[in-house]
Amino acid sequence: MKKQFYKPLIIIGLAIISLEILSMVSSICYFLINKVKIEKRDLTFYKNIANNYQLSLENKIQENLFLQQQLAQQEAEVGNFRVQLSSLTENVNTLVKLRNLDEELLKKYSKVYFLNENYVPKTLLKIDSQYVNNSKEQY
Q1: Predicted confidence band at 4 (pLDDT cuts at 50, 70, 90)?
Q2: Which residues contact 137 (CB under 8 A, 6 or more apart)?
Q3: Do 121 and 107 touch, CB atoms closer than 8 A?
Q4: Contact between residue 106 and residue 113 where contact means Cβ atoms under 8 Å apart
Q5: Residue whose C-alpha is closest to residue 43's, from 35, 53, 33
Q6: Distances in Å between the alpha carbon of 37 and those of 40, 41, 46, 55?
């Protein structure tokens, strides 16, 4: 009789242990499924953030290229202005030098002054008769 009494208790005990194990397994599965859902949601969230950063980076790269092109154009314009400025500076320096020159020195050493029709040298030499066609023009 003792054997029959223990048999149902063993079956009930095994059933309870099985239910506990099944309950733990289902709880673990539920926990893992929820964890996977949370991880998927987080992964989607971080993928969206990464995509936004990627788009922002591409926009910044395009903006950077545009700004580099504008900078190159501005540098070219500045270079042209520098060339013009140096040319104008040379012209202004020449004009300043000419303005500051003594008029007497200009008259004395200027080719224009020597070629002027009103120029008369201080002393004249007589030209040999063999070199003169007309005897009146001796000088």
Answers
A1: confident
A2: 127
A3: no
A4: yes
A5: 35
A6: 5, 6, 14, 27
List, for residues 72-118, the tens digit of each pLDDT value: 999 999 999 999 999 999 988 888 887 777 676 766 666 655 566 66
Which residue in the block uniquely carries the two structure tokens 């012209």?
Answer: 91
**One-letter amino acid identity for 50?**
A
Here the tokens at position 110 are 């200027």
Tell me which residue has tokens 């700004």.
67
Kindly report the average pLDDT of the chain as a whole number: 85
- Residue spans of the domains in the chain: they are 2-111
In this structure, are residues 113 and 119 in contact, taking their beta carbons and an 8 Å threshold? yes
DSSP code of 133?
Answer: S
* Token output for 15: 């059933």
Q: Which are the contacts of 35, defined by CB distance < 8 A and separation ≥ 6?
A: none
